[in-house]
Amino acid sequence: MTITASRPVTEVRAARAARRRWWRGKWPLAALLAVLSVLTVSPFVAMFIVALSPAGRPTVPVRWPDSLTLDNIARVLESSGFVTWTVNSLIYAVISVVIILLTSSMAGYAFAKKRFPGREAMFWTFLATMMVPFQATLIPTFVLVNSLDGVDTFWGLIVPTLANSQAVFLMRQFILGLPDELFDAAKVDGASEWRVYWTIVVPLTRPILATLGVFVFLWHWNDFLWPLVVGQSDATRTLTVGLTTLRTEELQLSVLMSSAAVSVVPCLVVFFLLQRYLVNSIAMTGLK
Amino acid sequence: MRQRLRDPVTGLLFVLPVLVLFLIFRIFPSLGAAGMSLTNWNIGGDWEFIGADNYARLLDDVNFWLSLRVTLVYVAIYVPLTLLVALGTALLLNQVVFMRGLFRGMLFLPYVTSFVLAGIIWRWIYEFDGLINGLLAKADLGPVAFLEQSAVILPALAVVSVWKGFGYSMLILLAGLKSIPSSYLEAATVDGASAWQRFRRITLPLLKPTIFFVVVIETISAFQTFDTVYVMTGGGPARATYTLIFGIYDHGFRSFDFGYAATWGMVLFAIVLIVSLVQRRFLDRGNT
């Protein structure tokens, strides 16, 4: 925040004093916040403890075990289904991220900076489809994909989820804010449209592309209903769907929790690397 | 150069990939859902136009009314609960300076994971020999059969969804709180207003649009509850968690009664549409 930096020294001192005064009055609030935060994280902590404890029914309440072991995790990683599901989830999420970023930034550029017949009508139609929940069109989408022999294939899993109106909308809003002169200048220099897109639009939209990429990755990695109905065998089953098939078998809790723990690792990595960034982008754009 | 910016062909070409995806996988299935609900389409792909028969069947279907009631009760529990938790934590985060980033991160953490993972962890927490009952036993209380009792199951599911999702609304509300000019609150403090009066008379009215936005998105997401139901209860016990989406899934992918499942989908669409229209009305009123 540049505003704070340019504030006079006396004001900074006053703020510091205010902070000290504040601490005397409000430490119960901080304590309450700390308790709530610990409660929120505790189910994860319990999950990891059980995952890392020797097999068998865990002691309740969950205690730190006398010895930690990676046996459960190893058992999970050895089962072939689990590895296949993880790879499938990665394919589903990564391909979706790449294609959605590419197509939505292209469309966002056109909607923001190009004039062509039907632009407004098209854009409002895109926005209107946001109001139709995916679950309401689940059956016709499935029947369509089924009639094209897409059930239990990767394209059937991925392609129907690529029509993401939120991504198009976000990209358009962001590119609208870029000055027209940039594009005009490139045109005067004789750059082709594709070159303008690649050397001006893509680099300048990098922050929003990164944010959107993270969210698309999380949405697809965590997605459930569509992969459930389309991925019907291990060949295309994703991790979320695979985890629900584990439950039905007689399985030791420690193995189940290990599977769950391994499945959440990519989300946690994304979260710890980009926490501040995610938080700011939600506050600014209302990304869901 | 203005002329070239208007070049209609490049604009259309850049929109084309998104346009094709949308026509095939969003717009066509949306229209298809309406059409399909007027047929008796089934797994074999055979169908006959049966007019409004599915809708008549819906009105006579005990399970439909039960499902609608289950969903409405769930919404009525989930939305106030999540608003309360999100607003409470947002207010605390707005007040507390001490380790704010850490607490915010801990509270937001579950949001980046999946409902499937939340369902798996919380199933164990709620189980008869699970975490909570273990704690209750230590205190010579319980056990409580959370997952087997109709009266307890919907609040139990709502708690899982609140835990998983409140971080998002919390961040939106926090952004809203930060946009309230601190001079208003300082002036009120000088005038001798108590903390409660400042909250009631300044914070709450200025935060109203944000609160309303949060209520709308959380209401819509509550109507779409499926993953946790699938993982934790399978619609039971005795259909106590048979939500609308579970009904769509059940009729579509267990009975393969696609036409009738599409009719259930239309009900979901109607509900989301009504909520969105109410939102638009309120927002328009707020602007004028």
Structure description:
The complex is a heterodimer of chains A (288) and B (288). By secondary structure, chain A is mainly alpha-helical. Helix content of chain A is 75%, strand content 0%. Chain B has 13 helices and no strands. Helix content of chain B is 75%, strand content 0%. With 288 residues, chain B is mostly helical. Chain B has helices at residues 2-5, 8-36, 53-60, 62-95, 100-108, 115-126, 131-138, 150-178, 182-190, 195-223, 227-232, 244-253, 258-287. In chain B, helix 6 packs across helix 8 (150-178), helix 9 (182-190) packs antiparallel against helix 10 and helix 10 packs antiparallel against helix 13. Chain B is globular and about 75 Å long. Chains A and B meet through helix 2, helix 4, helix 5, helix 6 and helix 9 of A and helix 1, helix 2, helix 4, helix 5 and helix 6 of B.
Low-confidence residue ranges of chain B: 1-5
Using only C-alpha atoms, the radius of gyration of chain A works out to 25 Å
Question: Measured on Cα atoms, how large is the radius of gyration of chain B?
Answer: 24 Å
Q: Which residues of chain A form runs of ≥5 with pLDDT under 50?
A: none
What is the H-and-E element order of chain B?
A: HHHHHHHHHHHHH
Portion in helices of chain A: over 70%
Number of strands of chain B: 0
Helix content of chain B: over 70%
Distance between the termini of chain A: 26 Å
Q: Which range does the strand content of chain A fall in?
A: under 5%
Largest sheet of chain B: none
Tell me the distance between the termini of chain B: 39 Å
Question: What value does the average pLDDT of chain B take?
Answer: 90
Strand element count of chain A? 0
Q: Which structural class do you get from the secondary structure elements of chain B? A: mainly alpha
H-E string of chain A: HHHHHHHHHHHHHH
Multimeric status of the protein = heterodimer
**Tell me, what's the shape of chain A?**
flat
Largest interface here, residues on each chain?
A-B, 99 and 100 residues
Instruction: State which percent range the strand residues of chain B make up.
Output: under 5%
Protein name (chain A): Multiple sugar transport system permease protein
Family (chain A): Belongs to the binding-protein-dependent transport system permease family.
Main location (chain A): membrane
Membrane topology (chain A): Multi-pass membrane protein
